[in-house]
Amino acid sequence: MSEALIAAKQISVRFGGLWAIKDVELQVNSGEILGIIGPNGAGKSTFLNVLSGLQRPSAGHLVIGKEETADPKAWRMAKLGIARSFQTIRLIDDMSVLENVLIGTHLYAVKGFLQVVGRSRSWHQTERQLKEGALETLAWLGVGHKAELPVSMLPLQERRRVEIARALMIRPRVLLLDEPCAGLSQQESLALSNLMSGIRTRGVSIVLVEHNVKLVMALADRVVVLDHGQKIAEGTPTEVAHNETVIQAYLGGEVHA
Amino acid sequence: MNLQRLKFWSAILLGLGSVLASLYVQNMYLLNVIILAVISAILAVSVNLLVGYTGQISLGHAGFYGIGAYTVALLTTRWHWSIWLSFLAAFGLSGLMGLVLGLPTTRLRGHFLGIATLGFGVIVNVVLNNWTSLTNGPVGVRGIPAPALFGISLEYKNFFLGFALACLFVIVLLVYLVVNSAVGRAWKCIRRDEIAAQVSGINVYGYKLLAFAFSGGIAGIAGALYAAFMTLVSPETFDLNQSITIVTTTILGGAGTLVGPLLGTGILTLISEWLRNFHELRLVLYGLILVLFIVVMPQGIYPFVKKHVQLWFTPRKVKIQRGSEGRHL
Fold this sequence. Notes:
The complex is a heterodimer of chains A (257) and B (329). Chain A is α/β, with parallel strands linked by helices and 257 residues long. Helices cover 38% and strands 25% of the residues of chain A. Chain A contains ten helices and ten strands. Chain B is mostly helical and 329 residues long. Chain B is built from 15 helices and four strands. Chain B has helices at residues 2-21, 28-54, 61-77, 83-105, 110-130, 132-135, 157-179, 182-192, 194-199, 204-230, 240-253, 260-274, 282-296, 301-313, 316-327, and strands spanning 141-142, 148-149, 152-153, 232-233. Chain B starts with a helix and ends with a helix. Chains A and B meet through helix 2, helix 3, helix 4 and helix 6 of A and helix 7, helix 8 and helix 9 of B.
């Protein structure tokens, strides 16, 4: 059995009178791709926000490695090795691709005042290493040749890759991807899903929230289905695909089979 | 890379050159104007850290300026501290006030932050005016000794100008080094997208506090210079008008750039000195010119000029290529 990197215990999120998420238990294991699917408004993105520390849960807590927290802070979560991308890409448009990716290296950069101001040898060395690492990652993701261009000049699928590159720079153990294939063509989605397998091979677990159920089923080791904020099914893609509650939730009605 | 290094060293040379050149200015009026302009430039650089790099508005910068000036004034006249120690104290105390102001306000954004910082500036002004037992009220504090450097008294205005310029260049150099590091990257990211910063492991709250403290401290140095130069301080210098002028200068010159605040100070000083010829119409014209600048170059003078100079030197072919690449979106 592989170890659990993140365990969500009884997580609930309430917006006013609405439970966006109710008592969701979930575990992310090392080296796996975990798909989260569900109809619109099922609470998938909210759940991802909880995992990345952007949304404070109304109840429940997270266990990350040995740490336990009921009020996760996003930058602390990044420190604990949880990175993410966004459905609406959050890059800084007028900065170059490389500058954007370097933001992700923040945790590993030399930041001591005297070292920065004195431009110490270790400062130079670290900055050079981080830059090389960023360029390497960009090249690996297939956007290395655009490192010097402003992000605004890149097409959507390349910007997605740049955002993933920035997320990888924090050297995550878990990468949360929120609808990475939204707005991409079938071909581009396929290329991106190959990339996700590649990221997993590098030892990073992936939590994938995606509308494209087919893609998730093909890629994920395990799938969790959310509906109305509750977990209605969990298992291998085949198990989930044959689960009656799931079919009901998606098709909205009785199943006659 | 090499170009950057060239720029860096030519800036250093320019700095040294202007310090030397300051010894040859003969005209007293000119000396006064330039020294005050250098102090304004330090203020603009300071507020640029917040407004330009970190994206946090501050409408109370005269508060830090005043705290720095009064720290020097009171420590030297009342407790007879050495002027250099009092400079250090001005930096430390204004920086600390920046931190204290930041603690509650960094959770605010946009207009709310504007109002809160504006309140801070007003409060400092009110305190300076009314805490008579300490600050001497509206009369102010007189008799601040002129500093001396290596046995040379800076009472001689040329020397003071040289010293003030040296301060400005050291501060600009510090800002350059900090901004071009992970700290500056974090600030720039916070300015544009706080959520992106957070998920990249940047402690947004902490970095905003750092910007407030650093910015406050630098404004405090400007205040210290002002006190030492004028040898007297009174509350009316550190009012809301001053705060707004500082921000205007920075935005006009080009917030978020190293050169912008310096250029803004230079141009605004020239304009306001030139407008003295127009007596009553002075402020009307000043306002008109400001509006004109903002309308024509909303990003500031420096980015505007830079863009046009670059376009001028870009070969036509590249321009067309870039144009078509842009259209792909």
